[in-house]
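Deliverable D5.2: sample structural annotation.
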Amino acid sequence: MQTSRLEELSKAWVIPESSSKKPGRFNITLCFPDEKHAVLADGCGGIFILETGDRNMDSAEWKV
């Protein structure tokens, strides 16, 4: 039986350093338009479309 509990955290992707140094930063927004993609707004005017692959895998890294 599958549960919704998160057992362990893992890093999937890191926002580029240049995005975190701008003044006037807003909240980061992340949405999942389908099962293999994510769209991230970095709060500084940058938008990233990420290929997440199979998010059910334990070691999946996301790619821009």
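Annotation notes: Residues 25-56 form one domain. The chain has a mean pLDDT of 82.
The annotation will be released with the project's public dataset once the embargo ends.
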